[in-house]
């Protein structure tokens, strides 16, 4: 019963925001996934949360990804190509029959599996796209061009790589711009980007992966103040989830750390934060008490299918 009620609440909230956006010509963000790279439930996981999600498909979550949707151009852009891209594009197309099935372009944060491997579905084995624009920073560009199977997408012109320069805006039409910036993260194959998307009415920030806010050369507090919605790395909830590992060794900001950092900020700043990129161990995925605690402190939790 509880599940049905919460599903109904989610449906109602999503219904009203979708109705509002349907009548409106303002560009908006739609969340296509909220989980960490391995999704929820996780392969091989038989712990509490995963077991619930194996049993109850409505609890399952796709890997974190956003769509920027422009009702004026009738185009949309994908932020991160995840292993769940097949489901995510299908779900998006069902909700937006008046839009093209494929995005106008794809922006990629970095070369960890949850963020770019969905590109493989664009190849000739599957949908065989023609010069689909893929926006990436320089190291990721070179990684895709020089390593299979990605290099085949380039040589067969399934994708056309559009190089981004960090901290420079690119225009995608109708006064919409996207700016990539770099953040500290495990950069084995590529640098790691975050994105700032500007529309005439709203400003968005997307940082699904970062080591620690303190390792960044920018102030996350100032960055959040300068946008209306910030979708931020919330891979882990708190120290308890980490067992005996010292927090300093955990290469993500814990939700409780981000909450503490923003503790003294006004409610209007805190509510801009929408936590995303949840590891399968993060109780925020299934524990209503934890979800309530986060919301009571004035923060938001990104919801799949919801528009912002
Ligand atoms: Zn990730
Ligand atoms: Zn990563």
From TrEMBL:
Q: What is this protein called?
A: Pyrroloquinoline quinone biosynthesis protein B
| UniProtKB keywords | Signal
SUPFAM superfamilies linked to this entry: Metallo-hydrolase/oxidoreductase
Q: Which domain of life is it from?
A: Bacteria
The positions making up the signal sequence are 1-22
* Methyltransferase in keyword set: no
The UniProt entry, under Gene3D superfamilies, shows:
Ribonuclease Z/Hydroxyacylglutathione hydrolase-like
KW Calcium (keyword) present = no
Q: Which Pfam families match?
A: Lactamase_B_2
According to the entry, every stretch annotated as the Metallo-beta-lactamase domain falls at: 76-274
């Amino acid at each position: 019963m509880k599940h049905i009620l919460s599903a109904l609440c989610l449906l109602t909230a999503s219904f009203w925001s979708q109705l509002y956006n349907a009548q409106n010509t303002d560009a908006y963000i739609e969340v296509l996934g909220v989980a960490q790279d391995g999704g929820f439930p996780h392969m091989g996981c038989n712990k509490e949360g995963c077991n619930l999600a194996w049993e109850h498909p409505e609890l399952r979550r796709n890997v974190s990804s956003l769509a920027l949707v422009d009702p004026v151009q009738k185009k949309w852009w994908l932020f991160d190509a995840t292993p769940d891209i097949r489901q995510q594009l299908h779900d998006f197309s069902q909700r937006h029959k008046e839009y093209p099935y494929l995005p106008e372009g794809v922006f990629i944060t970095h070369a960890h599996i949850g963020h770019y491997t969905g590109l493989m579905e664009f190849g000739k084995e599957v949908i065989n796209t023609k010069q689909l624009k893929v926006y990436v920073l320089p190291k990721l560009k070179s990684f895709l061009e020089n390593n299979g199977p990605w290099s085949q997408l380039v040589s067969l012109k399934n994708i056309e790589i559009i190089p981004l320069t960090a901290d420079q805006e690119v225009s995608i039409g109708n006064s919409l711009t996207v700016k990539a910036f770099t953040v500290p993260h495990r950069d084995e194959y590529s640098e790691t980007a975050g994105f700032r998307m500007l529309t005439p009415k709203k400003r968005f920030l997307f940082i699904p992966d970062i080591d620690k806010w303190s390792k960044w050369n920018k102030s996350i507090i100032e960055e959040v103040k300068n946008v209306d919605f910030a979708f931020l790395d919330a891979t882990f909830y708190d120290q308890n989830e980490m067992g005996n590992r010292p927090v300093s060794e955990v290469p993500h900001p814990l939700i409780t750390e981000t909450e503490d950092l923003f503790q003294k900020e006004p409610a209007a700043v805190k509510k801009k934060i929408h936590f995303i990129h949840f590891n399968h161990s993060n109780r925020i995925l299934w524990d209503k008490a934890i979800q309530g605690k986060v919301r009571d402190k004035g923060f938001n939790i990104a919801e799949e299918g919801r528009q912002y």
